[in-house]
Amino acid sequence: MDWKLIIDYCKLDIAIMTPDELKARCKQFSLRVIHLVRALPDDKVGRTIANQLIRSGTSVTANYRAACLAKSRADFASKAGTAAEEADESALWMELIIEDSILAPEKVTPLWQEATELTAIFCASIKTSRQNAD
């Protein structure tokens, strides 16, 4: 799979949404991560990836919600930046699941795509926030 092409596509296909819509999207992402983690095998590798993915995947939502309560643009950029990092980390764990054939790609790829889209959305939001500060 050509990850770069998919990421580039996702960066170009960002729809404008309200903070509440993005909160709901992040929450659905975290719930989907929970379901994916439950499908991982109960072995050493599966448990290790599950622990990492559950942390990063649910942290996306928590950090975006914190960003929505930011007290300044710098605070928003910091918290949204953390959400972007966590979404990107989640994408990494999903890539490992796919590339090591831990789960079938068709079960993981749609969620991986959502992780990359969320990463792009947070990065764009940070950039816009910084541009509006100037």
Characterization of the model:
The chain contains five helices and no strands. With about 130 residues, it is mainly alpha-helical. The protein starts with a helix and ends with a helix. The longest helix has 29 residues, at about 105-134. It has helices spanning about 5-10, 20-40, 45-70, 75-100, 105-134. It is elongated. It has a single domain, classed as 23S rRNA-intervening sequence (de novo design (two linked rop proteins)). Mean pLDDT is about 90; it is low at about 1-15.
Which properties best describe this structure?
about 130 residues; mainly alpha; de novo design (two linked rop proteins); 5 helices; about 0% strand; elongated
Topology (SSEs and partners):
Blueprint: H1 3-12, H2 19-39, H3 44-68, H4 73-99, H5 105-133
The string of secondary-structure elements, in order, is: HHHHH
* The CATH homology group name: 23S rRNA-intervening sequence
Q: What is the top-level CATH class?
A: Mainly Alpha
Low-pLDDT runs of 5+ residues are: 1-13
Whole-angstrom Rg: 15 Å
N→C terminal distance? 39 Å
Fraction of residues in helix: over 70%
CATH architecture assignment: Up-down Bundle
Oligomer: single chain
CATH topology: de novo design (two linked rop proteins)
Mean pLDDT: 90
Please count the helical segments: 5
Short synopsis of the structure:
The protein is mostly helical. The protein has helices spanning 3-12, 19-39, 44-68, 73-99, 105-133.
